[in-house]
Every structure is written in C-alpha cells, then in structure tokens.
Amino acid sequence: MVKAANVTLVGKEKIGSGLVTVMVRGDVGAVKASVDAGAAAAKRVGELYSVHVIPRPHEDVESILLK
C-alpha cells in the first residue's frame, strides 16, 4: 500500500477474527491508488470486506479513529 503511492501510514489495528484496519494519509489520488493496491493484495491472500476513502476529512477525525 505505502509503496504504491506517496502516502503516510497513520495506523493499523487488528480488530479481531483476523480482520485488520489500515489507515493512510495523503492527497486523494495517492490514497485511492494506495487503497486499490492494498485491496488487490488483500484479495490475493484472503477476503476483502470493505474499503473506504474519506476525502478532506474534518481535522478531528484522525484523533477519533486512533483512540
């Protein structure tokens, strides 16, 4: 994911039952490219449940997600 585009890894969280959440930051195009690469990699090794990109999130969103 991070190698596919100019993005910063904000965090990753194992949420149980083999599920993982990964958060990256960057411009919208780079984040979409990164998420697409990560989604393709996830499909190769298992099952992909969901992908969501938040363009221009409110400044408080990151602090809420990282709690």
TrEMBL record:
Pfam families attached to this UniProt entry: BMC
Matches recorded under Gene3D superfamilies: 3.30.70.1710
SUPFAM superfamilies in the cross-refs: CcmK-like (SSF143414)
Coiled-coil ranges from the UniProt annotation: none
GO cellular component: bacterial microcompartment
UniProt-listed PROSITE patterns: BMC_2 (PS51930)
Domain BMC per the UniProt entry, residue ranges: 1-66
PANTHER family: BACTERIAL MICROCOMPARTMENT SHELL PROTEIN PDUJ (PTHR33941:SF11), PROPANEDIOL UTILIZATION PROTEIN PDUA (PTHR33941)
Protein name per its UniProtKB record: Propanediol utilization protein PduA
Lineage per the UniProt record: unclassified sequences, metagenomes, ecological metagenomes
This protein's encoding gene: pduA_29
